[in-house]
Design goal:
It contains no helices and 30 strands. The protein has strands spanning 2-5, 8-11, 36-39, 46-49, 55-59, 65-68, 74-75, 84-89, 92-97, 102-108, 125-130, 133-138, 143-148, 151-154, 161-166, 169-174, 179-180, 209-213, 216-220, 226-232, 234-235, 242-247, 250-255, 260-267, 276-277, 280-281, 285-286, 289-294, 300-303, 309-310. The protein has 313 residues and is mainly β.
Length: 313
């Protein structure tokens, strides 16, 4: 999270976010009587905390408190999504709306995942745990996918579908919790486009396209459905299954599923806007390599798809 205290911005970016909920590149903290204020994943909303990090309030761009957070142990401002903020009270997870009402009571387990202790709202659905079991609820706290000890993994909804794993078996559920077809299934393609049995399944989209909304960048599919949330300050188009994305001054790379494969650790200052190398833009993979900057001696810096340094030529 980009935290600004007393007018000084300190960029802290977590490489563990699957679908990064980034902060504004220029953290223009409003004037207020709060000492410690940081940006959130929602434009125009800011988080005020105490010196030791306990949440105090959400404030607007005029410095006015809009939600009192003083009764919560933690909030996850990076996962503020669809108007709901994950909160932690008495060791349990709930969701608060922007009027300060717990529309999802704090009754769910703390998640222990690389995404953090709570999931964001995704297409009106929330992946939660209760008594150690995964399930899915809607924003009115009604159970959509019943809690089950057989679930080892439940993905966030994308395009109206979630992927669930039971042991080593994967299935797909719609927004009502009913079993549906794999979106990559051949039957979703017109007959003339179907593949032979020996051909691996293809994605339901050929690629994702960059799209900007409220000053942030994300990616949409061929049907203009948002597949990767509007979380980035700058992006590159997908190439070879990966896209360069920038948060604050650092670049990383995500895949078509929105997973952060290469952490945000490449400085934006390494290249200038519009620069190309051998006709290739920066932070775009071509033939397994991406140009990410220049050394002072003029040599070019490139990485492979693991993020390791390799020769550019």
């Amino acid at each position: 999270m980009l935290r600004c205290t007393a007018g000084v911005g300190i960029s802290i970016v977590s490489a563990l976010l699957v679908i990064p909920q980034a902060q504004a590149a220029s953290c223009k903290i409003p004037k207020s009587y709060y000492k410690n204020v940081s940006c959130t994943a929602s434009s125009g909303l800011f988080l005020a905390v105490k010196d030791f990090g306990a949440p105090v309030a959400l404030i607007d761009n005029k410095g006015k408190r809009i939600v009192d957070l003083s009764r919560y142990q933690k909030v996850d401002a990076d996962n503020l999504s669809e108007g709901l903020l994950p909160v932690l009270r008495n060791g349990h997870v709930g969701y608060l709306n922007m009027k300060g009402r717990e529309v999802v009571p704090a009754m769910y387990d703390i998640l222990k995942e690389r995404q953090g202790w709570a999931r964001p709202v995704s297409e009106g659905r929330i992946v939660v745990k209760k008594d150690g079991n995964y399930g899915v609820i809607n924003t009115a706290n009604r159970t959509v996918v019943p809690f089950s000890s057989s679930f080892s993994e439940v993905a966030d909804y994308r395009g109206g579908i979630t992927r669930v794993r039971k042991s080593n078996n994967i299935s797909w559920l719609d927004k009502s919790g009913n079993v549906t077809k794999n979106p990559a299934d051949n039957n979703h393609k017109p007959p003339q486009a179907r593949q032979s049995p020996s051909t691996p399944p293809i994605s339901p989209f050929t690629t994702l396209q960059p799209r900007q909304q409220d000053g942030k960048w994300g990616f949409v599919d061929d049907q203009n459905v948002t597949m990767i949330t509007y979380s980035f300050d700058e992006v590159r188009p997908f190439s070879e299954g990966m896209a360069g994305v920038r948060i604050n001054e650092d670049w990383g790379f995500v895949n078509l599923g929105g997973e952060l494969l290469i952490p945000f650790r490449f400085a934006d200052s390494g290249v200038s806007a519009g620069d190309t190398y051998q006709g290739k833009p920066s932070f775009v993979f071509v033939d397994g390599k991406a140009w990410i900057g220049n050394l002072k001696n003029g040599n070019k810096m490139c990485i492979d798809k693991t993020g390791s340094s390799v020769g550019c030529d």
